[in-house]
Amino acid sequence: MSYYLPYVFLSFVYLQLPHGLPPTSVDLETEVEKRFLRDPAWLPIHDTDARDVHVDSLLHCSSSPLHSGISVVRDPTTGMLLDFTEVLLGDTGISAKNSMSLQRPPNPNPSESLRGSNTNYPFLPVTYIFPFTSGLLTVPPGLKVGMDFSDKGLWTPARRISHSKIMGINMELVSPLLLSTGCWNIAVETCFHSATRALVRSGTDVGRLGLARTTKPGEGHEVKKRWAIPVDITSPCDDFYKRIPNPAFKYPFELDMFQKQAVLRLEAHESVFVAAHTSAGKTVVAEYAIALSQKHMTRTIYTSPIKALSNQKFRDFKTTFGDVGLLTGDVQLSPEASCLIMTTEILRSMLYNGSEVIRDLEWVIFDEVHYINDAERGVVWEEVLIMLPDHVSIILLSATVPNAVEFSEWIGRIKKKHIYVISTAKRPVPLEHYLYTGNSTKTQKEMFLLLDPTGNFQTKGYYSAIDAKKERTSKHAQSFGTKNASQKTTPNQDRAVWLSLLHFLSQRQQTPVVAFTFSRTRCDDNARSLASMDLTSSVEKSEIHSFFQKSLSRLRGGDRQLPQILLMRDLLKRGIAVHHSGILPILKEVIEMLFSRGLVKVLFATETFAMGVNMPARTVVFDSIRKHDGTGFRNLLPGEYIQMAGRAGRRGLDATGTVIILCKSGVHDMGDLHVMMLGKPTVLQSQFRLTYTMILNLLRVEALRVTDMMRRSFSESHRDTQAHEQQIGQLKQTLSSLPPLDTEGQLSDLLPYYYTVTELRITAEALQCAVLGSVNGLKALSVGRVVVVNNKQHFNALGVLLQVCVCVCVCVCLSVPTYKLKLQDVSAITVKTLKVIPDRIIDNYNKRQQPRFRLDPPGQAISTATQELLRLAEANPGGVVTLDAVNDLQLKSVDVVEGTMRLRLLQDSLKDFNCIHSPTFSEQFLRVQERMSVQEELDKLLFLISDQSLSLLPEYHQRIKVLQSLQYVDSSGAVQLKGRVACQISSHELLLTELLFENALSPLAPEESAALLSCLVFQQKTQVEPHITNTLQEGIERVLAVAQRIGELQSDCGITQTAEEFVGQFKFGLTEVVYCWARGMPFAEIAQLTDVQEGTVVRCIQRLDEVLKEVRQAARIVGDSVLGSKMEKASLAIRRDIVFTASLYTH
């Protein structure tokens, strides 16, 4: 019984306690062992069931890469296999993480093969092969002695031998010093003058010493290598089909001459620049390149400036070739295709990130190259052109530009390959330009021809238009020209003009019409005002309705009832449409497709419709010739007008295209119209600028330098480094051949004397410029004033002024009786004046210029003036006293006073030199001057090819300072973690990276994060104040605080952008819209929250999705998986419904 007693007692206690027994302490060691060592769920990486020990595995190591391989030896004539030989392999152990070579093995990660990775090295651009030896350390850090890398003549690389070197032609020395003496004191000049005379007496060639005018760089006989080769498209190409018996692509029509020439160059694997008018057939060149790459089993990349154009080209090329892919910010279709279509920004990213696509790339086609003039995005084209590897050929398609050869020369020089420039000004459909003056009974069916198809300006038509317009004005308003042209018209007047014009064009079967209107609001208003106009038949209405319904069937029911869609459906049924950035993307595509079918009769569009979209019309109408360019109103530039007017005329359908300019309130000025229609198109200009992303991407690869990128930009295309290096070699050779200087004994201070005289000359020149630029100085240049003249004809000659114009003086000099001078030829103004009769002297001089009086002696007035000057010179052998800038001319500025004092000090110091007493002073001084002139020219050329002469170098140092302050790079320029994160971000990289590292996005919900980041993509002004949560408001304040800090740091480092300007670029007008959209609100409701147009909202949300992807990738680099998943949720929340509906062109 006693054995069972404890158990009975415990059972009794357990039954009595309401909650059972109290907790007892368990063995902690047992609990830990059970939970953390025996439970596989806690340690899933360990196989606790069977843990076999393999000691041999500790001795195993991976095999090293092979250093040799087997090569086949064949008979060169028969090709028969003869032997095998072992060859050493280079570049072993390289990868995308340590090498820029194309020989590196392909990236094994499939997700990185397409777009690359920001940890990859880019492939080596051809432009970076040559400057490898620059910047090499000769002495290791911490050591006193190092290695000398200079050429000792033991080995010389193979170089192209220029014709001038074969012929033995040497460039002459530059920079004459003795004649460009400017305003020297006459006593000082005597030293040089006497030295020159001594050399002339001794028979020395003064010109050889640089004392006369010498050949400037570029004036020599050496033929400069040209990279851009203009192609003559007027010469016949009769043997085209013999030269290309089996073309890669056959066209169902005969090619134009410029197209044939381009195809011939493509077959030879040459790069081309094709400049032609809109609709001339430039796409034929792109199509042939794509066909060639498919034939060669290589790849082609087609880049466009805008996403909409990429989508359209995808549809066109997909229909033609089939194997075509598309890469945009939010779409990736068939990335393995042989032809990839993308925006230029994506190609830039692929180049920086070492994409594997670049290996197989044969062609890159740049469409709409004139977009390089875009201030914001033009830099992308330059970066891509510089970063492309050597094996890639380039095709550039552009509208007609005046400097196509210059642009191609730059590309050819940086890529070391010829660029064939094929340009044609011929239009496939000639244009007729008219003025339309109003809606009166007389003129509503009359247009006035202003420019005929041959390009002749018709002044008769212009004056007829003025007369017709005057009949409509009151007597008070009758005036010639443009006084009324700038007055605004009322909506009713606009409506009347459009109704009368469109009725007139419809009756003449001159539809479809594109009406270019440079205001989105006015586009909408003009379309709405035509409520009474119906331009379509019942069959066309049915076709429009069917296509419209089918296209929008992919939208949700609520999205189909959006006000913009309902309005556009009503307009389209009547043959009217609107096309601008405020229209929903899917609606724009519907309108473009209906327009290409000829079902849209009148399209009110902004300038963007003319960008690359091949949709010609019968007629183009300009609502106005003035536009707002972001800073103010101005007339259309010739290039803009030509681009838009070129939409008129359909090839194969119209004999001529019609362009009409509306004159609503008055006829435009004839000069403005002439410049706009016949002026030169805008030249291609560099928009190269430094960005933090570019700097960081280049700094992370040791072999690439930012200064090399700057040097090869189009903005620095004037630098001919190769020619400069040739001249440097010649100057060094000349310098080494000069006799040594004698600086012993009395001549020991010869070099200091030379430097003092040189400083004296420079100081005097600067002082004389200040004198001649002042009012008192010009007053002193009165008739009869004696001056000292120095130029090519005169050396310290005295002259007397006869007449003073704005920048020309007429004077009598001792050597030439009467002579016209420029102001800069006057090196000093003396205190002396002479009495002269200027009119008599000038008349006598002009008379003796005639052939029959040329041998007559000078007149009495000239002889008297010359004798007076001669007497004055003899009376003052040390030089005539000159006017003092401070005391006599009363110039009191700091620069003038300091310059005068310095001049006197230098003049006094010349007496203390011993070298001037040496008997060989003249000869030795000329030797010094000869050597120094060569040295100065050499130094100038060395500066021109150095980094110090780069225009953007100061800004580069400022931006490096900013990056170092924010710890993106260290003091040696190595990219740190923050810098690697910033490389992942395409725009506003500093702000986003700082927000990321300050955990500013961590406390926000996914929808709040998306709303906050909308400030990076929204750039418009809005009048509606958003209603947002407190958390979001705090986030906005934090973003502004970070932006303010970055802006102030940039200002402190010297960057010109102020902190206010930096902060002002972030606009939060769409925060409420994006927040509600991410929370699931229908699009129709969020459209009511803002005054921003629907199309702009959609575009901003689409760009926001790209930003969220970049932040997600950056968060993963940092290791913040929580933020990464939050960004992914935010991206999923906004990717829905009408905003991310697939393009009609891609499905």
Automatic annotation (TrEMBL):
All copies of domain Helicase ATP-binding, residue ranges: 263-419
Single biological process term from Gene Ontology: nuclear-transcribed mRNA catabolic process, 3'-5' exonucleolytic nonsense-mediated decay
Superkingdom classification of source: Eukaryota
Keywords, ordered alphabetically: ATP-binding, Cytoplasm, Helicase, Hydrolase, Nucleotide-binding, RNA-binding
Domain spans labelled Helicase C-terminal: 534-699
GO molecular function per UniProt: ATP binding; hydrolase activity; RNA binding; RNA helicase activity
Pfam families: DEAD, DSHCT, Helicase_C, MTR4_beta-barrel, Ski2_N
Keyword Transmembrane tagged: no
CDD domains: DEXHc_SKIV2L (cd18027), SF2_C_Ski2 (cd18795)
Gene Ontology CC annotations of this record: Ski complex
Catalytic activity: ATP + H2O = ADP + phosphate + H(+)
Protein name listed in UniProt: SKI2 subunit of superkiller complex
Annotated source species: Hucho hucho
